[in-house]
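Would you mind giving me a polypeptide sequence along with per-residue structure tokens?
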Amino acid sequence: MLLFSSRKVLARPDVSFSSGNMQRHETDVFHAEAGFNQIDFAKVYHEGPFDTSNPNNSDIIPKRCAEVLCPSPLVLDESLQAVICRSYAERQALIHLLGDHGPVWANRIKIFSEAGLFCADYAYVESVDISPGGLRISFHPRKDGRLVNVAVTCTGLAPGLPTYTWDPTDRPIGPNWDFTCGGLTPGRHSVIIQLQGVAAFQAEMELVAEPF
């Protein structure tokens, strides 16, 4: 989730606002402060069920989708306050995927795991730990309890280090699943986790030799 500074975005001289979902042809577009004051905020922030047979309520759903319209591209350095991730593993993966930009943005990438902010109905990776015996992975399970297809690859990044692969398997996932192998050598390893055939985690992890 991207968290923007409302002041820096809403106060731009070139910003516009929509009365609802921009995919609907009857949606109006307003400009500047005068346009902002035309937005029906009571319906934009409407919560809970409502009587769909009442014609006065027919526009609640599209108005809940009112949009802030900024010319593209929007410079993130000036307006992006934070990127909110669901778990430590997702933060770790995002920083990795940012490459050379990862260290620059790391202090803005936060974790918010409390209930209510994200939809938590489906599976995702909570944490990944590496040890000489293999990987220990904690998953957030599906709310409906269904099995999840999980595939894991751990590739040594130094010459001579092997690749270990755990083939796609339907699992009743949850916390502290162990993916064991013949023994990981100290060094850097690339770990990729796929859920339902989609990459859910990717990062380089350092296995440090035990001092004793």
Q: What stands out?
A: The chain has seven helices and 13 strands. The mean pLDDT is 90. The first strand starts at residue 2 and ends at 4.
